UniProtKB/TrEMBL annotation:
Domain of life: Eukaryota
Membrane topology summary: Multi-pass membrane protein
Listed GO biological process terms: copper ion import; intracellular iron ion homeostasis; iron ion transport
Designated name of the protein: FAD-binding FR-type domain-containing protein
Localization in the cell: Membrane
GO molecular function, one term: ferric-chelate reductase activity
PANTHER family: FERRIC/CUPRIC REDUCTASE TRANSMEMBRANE COMPONENT
Keywords associated with the record: Ion transport, Membrane, Transmembrane, Transmembrane helix, Transport
A single cellular component GO annotation: plasma membrane
InterPro entries linked to this entry: FAD-bd_8 (IPR013112), FAD-bd_FR_type (IPR017927), Fe3_Rdtase_TM_dom (IPR013130), Ferric/Cupric_Reductase (IPR051410), FNR_nucleotide-bd (IPR039261)
SUPFAM superfamilies to which the protein is assigned, alphabetical: Ferredoxin reductase-like, C-terminal NADP-linked domain
Amino acid sequence: MSALDIFIHVETLESLASRLLAQVAISQPQAPDSNDPAESAASFAAARMAKMLEGQAIINRWLASLNSHVLGLCVILCLLLGVILMTRRGSQAFHFGWFLYGKPPTDQVFRPVHIPQHPKIFQGHLGVIRQIYGFTFLQNVPLTSNFTFGQLTLSSFFIGMIVILAVLSNSIPTQNPRRFGYLAGANIPFLVLFSMKNNPLALIGKGYEKFNFIHRTIGCVVIACALIHGGLMIRFWSQGMISNLKAFYSGCFMGIMLLLVGITAIPGIRRKFYRLFYFVHVLGYLSVISGGIYHERTLRPYMLAALSLHLLSSGWQVLKWKMLTATLTPLPGKITRVEINGIKTGWKAGHHVRLRVFGNFWHGFQAHPFTIASAASRTGTETNSLILYVKAVGTFTTMLYAKAVTVDGFKDVRPVSQNRFSSGSQAQVQLPSDICDSIIHQDKKQSLAQSKESVGVSGQAENEITANDVVLGFGLPDGVQIDVHIDGPYGGVGWHGLDEFKDIIICTGGSGISFLMAAVSELVSSAKVGGITKKALVIFAVRDWEVAKYFGQLLKIDIKEASMYGLALDVRFFVTEKVDSPIPLGDIKIRWQRPQLDVLVPEFLMDVVGDEGVFLGACGPPGLMAQVRSSVAMIDLKTAKRVGGIKTHFEELGW
């Protein structure tokens, strides 16, 4: 079934409408005021049917063009825009963010080159425009956790367009159920397009997760149109007006599956029963694609287009797959440190990977996204590894933490740390405070294997703490090794990375520490090779003091290294847990309260010199993200123009 068949179908409708209009004209050539009620009623019915068919032909012609024109135009525009952006970025854009590599570059150093984002003459004006956008569209809609006015505007525009198409030249929509069926089918390719992990729209510098709200909006429209179409068809079937039972029963099957998908996609149900949601989603997708091909011939191009997009994304995703061995280490606050030594470069701060752990059917079937918490190796002399910090909050993450605190994932390990774990409760490790400093060496050496190798090669001093000493002090196994499946990288902060801004604000909370650690490490690494970033405000809000203490010890080393290369890191911790006698964390400022971002952000902007723009990246729970958005929206236009605007990047947890 091709697009030509659809146009033939449209021409048939148009010819039928023309014949009906001709019959109306012939039936009343000289007597428009006929007194015969039956003849007048028949003429009126014929005219109404002709108008309805004419409107249906217009809509069908527009829908038919979507298959080969609109989708193709979107892809071409994305490719053109991507080529322009990648040309400005140079070779670095091709090296980072596409694939993960096991070997760092050995023959070149990726030095950050400052490329102005906009012409100097327009920088201030664009800063004002960016701030107006932030004030208008960036804030959250009241009574929602992570739905902004910008997303609401785009969703409302799309829904309004669908409503117009539903009533255009269709005076009685309830008498024309096929219109709603075509609207549902024509949106299936777009539904798949905005759900693809390897979305062509990523060429504009945005990850697939940024388009997920469009996928949800289109999904609601498809379900609504399909249910209206099915309800009207059931009424016609009850009146004996439908003879094609094959199409009727296949349509009922698709309607039931779409309804189940919609019910399980409700946020509360999706979070609580994610496995059920995932299973129903996959089954519903397969049912709609196969059922649409079987249901109606004119729907086949849309179903085949959706299937082609899915296969294209899956094929590209296979190229990103890697089977590797990971080392699990338990940390305070029920956090698991996942270190993958086989990957050295290929990502930037803000990228995330999708992790699978084999050994369990469900866990091996599902891929879970986690933000990368380390900087990629820039040269062959660096041996950075890909590191993830996973908070134990759900079934999968708790299982991962349980494996980290046990030998082979089954036996409890209790020396020194006195670990406690049972099948009926979550695992928890209390690390002694006197060895928090020593674990820093383990993180900075990146892996146990690399640390042992460096000891043998360089002739380490006897009194220097080794990674093995740290493990013995914890009373934990010498690194729990498991096989993992990595897919990525995805996401990112856009084509203009952190190292292209002179002034940066990083605000994170809870599990958002991964983005913070990657950003700080990348800034320090960039400063070592002459980066342009001179000042960064780093904010971390956390409840658990033990977590703050661990990551504070890591950041102390980064602060010291940054100061040696002209980078001023202002790190501030906001801890809500009450502690009797907290230990100092060097240059890190500790506050025992929640951060007041509406005060901290304007204070930082007051000291910004120049109008080249400020980068603000945030990652954390929805409440913190809403506070960050509000603080950005409150900045006055004069300040925004003076600093050149604020480029924002938000990583939502649990999208």
